[in-house]
């Protein structure tokens, strides 16, 4: 690893230009030299939390490639810093870069619980699983301070409404009390993202995430408390974690996971430039190989937006990855599966309490 040029604790190493802006900022060498001579920091590398005030919190998901119809994101941007994150592009809509800004400018929606409650009370709303973290992780470090996710879970419990969670943070265990209550009525499903069993790989791919040991422990604790867990082996990146599919599947099954899911990495929009810059700085010896193998999975390009193929890829390498996942399911998840969430109770709890008549 070329540690001299790596910004510690961050995934992205640059702020790429926002495609919606005509102008862009550049960190010039003469400015960096001036800071060095003056003993000043050119970049303080601090995370800022910025409150925003959306009018709605639940989004209808139009993509046919993801297994969700509705999602909600109580934070925009994510301090976890996963270099491959598809959500980076969405930060451009808020006026920021998909690079370092995505990790250091976290938008906080404190009104999320109130907005969620207003939606669930509507007569026109029919229960359907809502996924927390369809875009950014609802248990990222900001949640420890703001507790917005916990407050939203309290709303789901009050109205007996099904909810699913996607996270890679062990902070979810803090809310075990609410999750257990939701699970009594089959109203909760949890998806834990685990991309590698190697701490070295995790640190470079996902610099501010929970350790692998803690994530495995989280799968075990949730499972032992009757909360169904699916593990996301996502994304699979050729020559970085593609060799770990079977070992990952085996261990998460032993820790209690009921199923696994996967995607093959795709580097859409600004992520292609961010990832390319990152891999040449962190893995220079294998950068060309990894980039070419990713391209081979997506018709010769890093930027694959084709519905139907973008998540699973194509070509020999993608076929090998998909076949390995199929084998892992047959070998380690036979007669296992995630239960369907209960959508029958909510109508009786439209007002937050059981209707007797």
UniProtKB/TrEMBL annotation:
Protein name from the UniProt record: PA0069 family radical SAM protein
Entry keyword set: Iron, Iron-sulfur, Metal-binding
CDD domains in the cross-refs: Radical_SAM
One of the Pfam families matching this protein, by short name: Radical_SAM
Organism annotation: Mariniflexile jejuense
InterPro entries xref list: Elp3/MiaA/NifB-like_rSAM (IPR006638), MJ0683-like (IPR040086), rSAM (IPR007197), rSAM_sf (IPR058240)
Domain Radical SAM core as annotated: residue spans: 64-310
């Amino acid at each position: 690893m070329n540690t001299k040029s790596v910004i510690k604790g961050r995934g992205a190493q640059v702020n790429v230009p926002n495609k919606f802006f005509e102008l862009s900022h550049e960190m010039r060498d003469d400015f960096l030299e001036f800071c060095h001579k003056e003993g000043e920091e050119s970049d303080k590398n601090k995370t800022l939390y910025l409150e925003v005030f959306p009018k709605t919190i639940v989004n209808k998901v139009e993509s046919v490639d993801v297994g969700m119809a509705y999602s909600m994101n109580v934070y925009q941007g994510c301090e976890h810093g996963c270099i491959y994150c598809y959500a980076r592009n969405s930060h451009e809509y808020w006026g920021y870069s998909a690079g370092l800004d995505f990790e250091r400018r976290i938008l906080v929606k404190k009104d999320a619980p109130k907005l969620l409650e207003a939606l669930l009370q509507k007569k026109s709303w029919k229960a359907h699983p809502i996924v927390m973290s369809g875009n950014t992780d609802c248990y990222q470090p900001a949640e420890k301070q703001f507790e917005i996710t916990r407050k939203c879970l309290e709303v789901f419990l009050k109205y007996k409404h099904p909810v699913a969670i996607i996270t890679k943070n062990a902070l979810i265990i803090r809310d075990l009390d609410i999750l257990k209550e939701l699970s009594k009525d089959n109203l909760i499903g949890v998806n834990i993202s685990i991309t590698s069993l190697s701490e070295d790989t995790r640190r470079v791919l996902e610099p501010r995430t929970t350790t692998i040991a803690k994530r495995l422990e989280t799968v075990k604790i949730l499972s032992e408390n009757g909360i169904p867990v699916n593990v996301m082996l996502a994304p699979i990146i050729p020559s970085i974690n593609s060799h770990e599919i079977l070992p990952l599947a085996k261990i998460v099954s032993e820790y209690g996971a009921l199923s696994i899911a996967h995607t093959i990495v795709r580097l859409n929009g600004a992520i292609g430039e961010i990832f390319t810059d990152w891999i040449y700085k962190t893995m220079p010896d294998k950068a060309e190989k990894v980039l070419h193998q990713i391209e081979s999975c997506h018709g010769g390009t890093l930027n694959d937006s084709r519905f139907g193929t973008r998540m699973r890829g194509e070509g020999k390498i993608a076929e090998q990855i998909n076949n390995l996942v199929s084998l892992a399911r047959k070998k380690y998840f036979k007669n296992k599966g995630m239960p369907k969430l209960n959508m029958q109770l909510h109508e009786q709890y439209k007002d937050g309490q059981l209707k007797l008549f």
